[in-house]
Amino acid sequence: MTDQNEPQLTRIQQKNRERILEGALTAFSANGFRGATIDQIAEAAGLSKPNVLYYFGSKDEIHKTLLTALLDMWLAPMLAIDPRGDPLDEVLDYVSAKLRLSRDFPRESRLFAYEILQGAPHLNEILGGRLRMLVDETVAILAAWIDEGRLAQVEPHHLIFSIWALTQHYADFEVQVRAVLGPGHDPFAEAELYLENLFRRMLQV
Q1: Which domain of life is it from (predicted)?
Q2: Whether residues 97 and 181 fall in one domain
Q3: Is residue 107 domain-shared with residue 182, that is, in the same domain?
Q4: What is the pLDDT of residue 6?
């Protein structure tokens, strides 16, 4: 929700903010928070350093803005899980959605990975708050399906962790994946078939 007391941005101002965030995504995903500089962000955005600092007071503010938006995007597929749907279909749809996010937004995935590896200094409050609440709600849905005999017996938290790990690997280690597979392979298309088969075999009753 936008604060009514905050001045509305003009179209040019909004465009400049978007350019800065796009430039910051490039810098942070390549160098991490510590390695990226305001100068690098400004260069990637095609703006001057004073212009960047006009819109964002610090590198920290830019980073937190990016991470918050990223987390919203990353959580959307989990929010879409329907407790009234077919359990196996819902889980497989979630796996597929997470893999598509890794395919379509690899820089965002690597930015998130960098943050976690640094101890999540900009996300601790969110990780222990909104994220944990959503995971708890999803675990409750999964546990109910398992208790009803509609999914195989697995530990719900670790099912979620394994989905995260197996899907985001293809973004965070994309260079390695492509190097190992070699030319002529589509890692994400192959991964989708593999992961669907893996989780289907694991979860069907």
Answers
A1: Bacteria
A2: yes
A3: yes
A4: 52
* Mean model confidence pLDDT for the chain: 90
pLDDT surpasses 90 at 1: no
Residue labelled with tokens 């990016």: 66
Which pLDDT score is estimated for 158?
Answer: 97
Token look-up 């749809």 returns: 93
Q: Do 111 and 46 belong to one domain? A: no
Please indicate, yes or no, whether residues 124 and 160 belong to a single structural domain of this protein.
Answer: yes
Verify that 97 and 126 share a domain, yes or no.
yes
- Which pLDDT belongs to residue 114? 80
The DSSP output letter for 42 is H
Q: Provide the residue range defining the domain that includes 34.
A: 7-57
Overall residue count recorded for the chain in this entry: 205
143 versus 36: which is more confidently predicted? 143
Tokens coding 150:
């509609």
Whether residue 143 sits in one domain with residue 52:
no
- pTM for this predicted structure: 0.82
In sequence order, what DSSP letters do the residues of 48-114 get, joined into one string? Answer: -HHHHHHH-S-HHHHHHHHHHHHHHHHHHHHHT--TTS-HHHHHHHHHHHHHHHHHH-HHHHHHHHH
Together in a domain, 83 and 175: yes
